[in-house]
Amino acid sequence: MPELSLLQRRQRVLGSQSPLFYDKPLHLVRGEGVWLYDADGRRYLDVYNNVPCVGHCHPHVVAAMHRQAATLNIHTRYLDEHIVRYAERLTATFDAPLDTVMFTCTGSEANELALRLARFASGGTGIIVSSYNYHGNSASLAEVTTALPSPEPFAAHARAVPIPCLYQAAPGTSEEQLAEQYAAKVAEAIASLKAQGLRPAALLIDTLFANEGLPRVPAGFVNKAVALIREAGGLFIADEVQSGFARTGEHLWGHQAHAVVPDIVTLGKPMGNGYPLAGLVTRNELVEAFGRSALYFNTFGGSPVAAEVGMAVLDVIENEQLLANARNVGAYVQQGLERLAAKHALIGDVRGKGLFFAAELVRDRQTKEPAGLEARRVVNDMRERGVLISKIGAGDNILKLRPPLVFGREHAELFIDTLDAALSAL
Amino acid sequence: MPELSLLQRRQRVLGSQSPLFYDKPLHLVRGEGVWLYDADGRRYLDVYNNVPCVGHCHPHVVAAMHRQAATLNIHTRYLDEHIVRYAERLTATFDAPLDTVMFTCTGSEANELALRLARFASGGTGIIVSSYNYHGNSASLAEVTTALPSPEPFAAHARAVPIPCLYQAAPGTSEEQLAEQYAAKVAEAIASLKAQGLRPAALLIDTLFANEGLPRVPAGFVNKAVALIREAGGLFIADEVQSGFARTGEHLWGHQAHAVVPDIVTLGKPMGNGYPLAGLVTRNELVEAFGRSALYFNTFGGSPVAAEVGMAVLDVIENEQLLANARNVGAYVQQGLERLAAKHALIGDVRGKGLFFAAELVRDRQTKEPAGLEARRVVNDMRERGVLISKIGAGDNILKLRPPLVFGREHAELFIDTLDAALSAL
């Protein structure tokens, strides 16, 4: 029998449906900073991964993990200084009254817990999400997911609302009108829940709308939507799994761009630079009230190792000034993408915040017909050229560009030049 | 303002309801093998924690984590040798046809995913659990939980069945009769679901029944219950979060004692010796069919770091012969507990498997009245005497004794002597 390839062995033990990137999957063996290395020693510029937000295998984070794992790694049913110090430092980065944290291991667990809290606090069950959302892999989240296939039918207690984008708006529509039109859809969704006898519990959104393709959301839309859910007795849950930890270059948290304080903020992916660390931050009285009715315990959540890793990530964000870097290098990348848009008609729109960009590929700048096949070819060609990106959006035609935050100008130049070449070769 | 204590600071940032062990919580700073050290340098024998199954901060596991975290830590959308090798080694420890693994980060996520798979495969929604169960902290699990408070009402699609215990059986009842009586309750639960128009999806149990207090389950009960759920079209999910990884001293997996192969086995706590690593093992066709309808992805699940940590745990279990140790030292502890039972009337029953014991405290050996207050005093007194244990069961009167698997005879002696002293001092 011929020896099985790594891909065949993987398919045998993990199943053939476990998702892989690229038509020709990449076999990685090493990571460092913004670089990933394959089994043949070739290096790739990582313009996709936000989990290693301070860079792959950052020595300060690795050292913190190692030191604490060699000293004490235990659950939160004992007193421990590390988790208290980390919780104090983390909550201090949020606006009042967000002062209390519950730790989990994954963003899915954080959003799952947020829904439990919101339902408890509101007495309702209704959930409003965006019409192209993904917030996690649990059953409660799968049944409100619209961006990925799941066997669970869309929940009767959920409503999906479209997110407005100025790029896609009908000509002549003002920003204010667009915000009003789409806020009206949130109001309709709430009315529809109520008509069915369901009390709204939460509006669950990522205020950067990453899965939706970073739409150019009109000013005021998020604030109006939040006002509506609160008026209806529901809570506003801001999912910062993608937009948090300095990603936007403006604030540490994505929701801060909207000058609205959420009721619950959920955290995940970049929080531990790859160590499974996540959680939610909310008002103290919400945690206290929930805690009087529920014994919530997460065995690995909030361990001393998780705390030291989380602390080390915050250290690096501060010490290496990654918020300013996201802003400065982000602006540089934005200019580069705009130059490419001027050259390549395929790029219908370029938008971004900090070090998170979307380049929407269209077959026709008038009709804005999604160029999904072209996007796929670009993503795969970029991989062959040594630059890792991905794509998102309902039409699968929006390039998703989201490098580790230690991305520098030299990396930006390499990325832009390679994208230019890939677009020219189409 | 006076400086806040660590406990006060913790309550402020984590909430006052976040659970802590002991009337006087323990402030830990270091762990090694079966020992935990507090902030004053005092050491405690750990007779409670199963997560550090190969011992606190085992150097082989810490080194594997460190080495891999410094090299590559990425999700499973790239090819990676570590996760394939670990999946191959892990699945090889299961009986056919259990050959495929899906990785998660926590036992809650594993059980949550198992329910999604079972519902998909069976086309049903009904869940049968034990009447004193806890399988995780998600909404779907909270609504079938009976052992912990949760604000979610017990689900209309769930039924809780009592687990038989020979110690609690009416005098004159044979083991076979008891198994039949309680299997009949499973049949009733299934009939009750069907009467409500609900198709059964799964029987979800820990075959060691750890939360229930390690009852002396009559031979044949588990097999009968499994046959009934399968006959009704549902799946058998064996939760090995507590009973797996050599804990029972007989087999690597607790369910193997019943000579029945589950449809899905869920794994958690000890799997990564404290690193957030969990998952489920099932038949390939189940994963394939689910995967064609659902895109399941777990960002941190199955990372190279998780794989290397999991591999290191299996190494230590093998190299240090911890299955045999659990059997041998377990038998020695069992004898010690039986000696104490002969001496102290408070101990109504002693039972265990490998290195997992329950000592049921009763006020009267005839009425078997639960001695919950006494159990609490013993647990707290043991802590003062430097030995960490806990308690379980519906009456909160069953001492829960579950040390790391590197527990030796000298530790067993210290534990038995200390328990003797604590019981004598009551």
From TrEMBL, chains A, B:
For this UniProt record, the keywords arranged alphabetically read as follows: Aminotransferase, Pyridoxal phosphate, Transferase
Q: SUPFAM superfamilies per the record?
A: PLP-dependent transferases
Task: State the InterPro entries in the record.
Answer: Aminotrans_3, Aminotrans_3_PPA_site, PyrdxlP-dep_Trfase, PyrdxlP-dep_Trfase_major, PyrdxlP-dep_Trfase_small
MF terms from GO for this chain are: transaminase activity
Classification via CDD domains: OAT_like (cd00610)
Q: Report the cofactors.
A: pyridoxal 5'-phosphate
Fetch the Pfam families from UniProt.
Answer: Aminotran_3
Tell me its family. Answer: Belongs to the class-III pyridoxal-phosphate-dependent aminotransferase family.
Would you tell me the protein name for this molecule?
Aspartate aminotransferase family protein
Q: What is the scientific name of the source organism?
A: Zestomonas insulae
